[in-house]
Amino acid sequence: MVPALAPSQVQAVSPIAEVICDQTPRLENRLKTTMNSEREGLGLRGPEQVMELWTTPGGDWTMVVTYATGKSCIVAMGEAWQGGLRAQDPT
Q1: Nearest-angstrom CA–CA distance, 39 and 54
Q2: Closest among 59, 79, 71 to 15, alpha carbons compared
Q3: pLDDT value at position 84?
Q4: Distance between CA atoms of residues 4 and 50, nearest Å
Q5: Residue 37: CB atoms within 10 Å
Q6: What is the spatial distance between Cα 64 and Cα 76, in angstroms, rounded to a whole number?
Q7: What are the CA-CA distances from residue 12 to residues 7, 9, 19 (Å)?
Q8: What are residue 78's DSSP bridge partners?
């Protein structure tokens, strides 16, 4: 008989638990000053949304969606970012 596994009491702590959405200038200031991030790229997601990628020199990254309303939200975070990778032209 296999013993039953007890559910883990450890819960993951989200690195974005403190701040998810804020007014764009405040969120940008926090990314720059507290997280040492710089905007690396951006692209339109629709007529009223811009997706932004913020990175740190150490390779942490943050994906932010900025709305035309003046609000921005952190939607994903991670580590080991490698920028500047481009597919090689096989010809």
Answers
A1: 4
A2: 79
A3: 80
A4: 48
A5: 20
A6: 7
A7: 14, 10, 16
A8: 61
